[in-house]
Amino acid sequence: MLHSALYGIWQAWGLDPHTEQALRAGLQVFIGQAIVKVSVS
Amino acid sequence: MNLGYSMTLPNTHELYARLLRQFATHLASIHALDCQRLDVGFLPQHAAAVATQVRQDSSMPSMADSAPDEGRILDALRSAWPIGQQNQSVLLHGDYWPSNTIWQDERLAAIIDWEDATIGDPLADLANSRLEILWAGGFDAMTSYTQQYHTLRPIDRTNLPYWDLYAALRPVRNMAGLGA
Description:
The complex is a heterodimer of chains A (about 40) and B (about 180). Chain A has two helices and no strands. Chain A has one domain. The termini of chain A are far apart. Chain A is mostly helical and about 40 residues long. In chain A, about 75% of the residues lie in helices and about 0% in strands. Chain B has a single domain, classed as Aminoglycoside phosphotransferase (APH), C-terminal lobe (Aminoglycoside 3'-phosphotransferase, Chain: A, domain 2, Alpha-Beta Complex), CATH 3.90.1200. In chain B, the strands form two sheets. In chain B, strands 1-4 form a two-stranded antiparallel ribbon. In chain B, a hairpin with a 2-residue loop joins strand 2 and strand 3 (about 105-110). Chain B is globular.
């Protein structure tokens, strides 16, 4: 499981445990935003 | 909730916000250390390692089919590298994320796992931790965390998007390895 340690941390912090799908989605947006910023800079 | 060896963490979003502030404060404190006075001359220069990695795969076939995000990231980085450095080099932790922190009574008591420490642009640590905070708490948390850090350490963030991309490389490769 990807970043399994993170799940434990999130749960300990009282957050909803993220699925791997959520990790991927977050990463996609993170990358997309950065790509846009470097493209216009 | 006790996570075994290291920590008892808060269990509400209010406490989580306080935790995030501490997380930002401690990173800023690390970056505020005077490298000239510290005996850290043995640490590698982060920029050299990054440049090697960015260039390393340039002779490889396009990864657009197997790992499109990796290809996009490398294309963007290679088109701009070297990006230059506007900030003074600092001590970088290299792997600053919640699992490398120890908490006691809701206070960040220690930062562990320094084996990736280098000297370099503070944006590298900031970008790594931004992605971790994004995953942990979402974009608002990431934005708040970034602003809190910047309030404490008003560094030049012009190149932050490049460091964000670099920070994304490792998880992109890990995910590609796991399959879509």
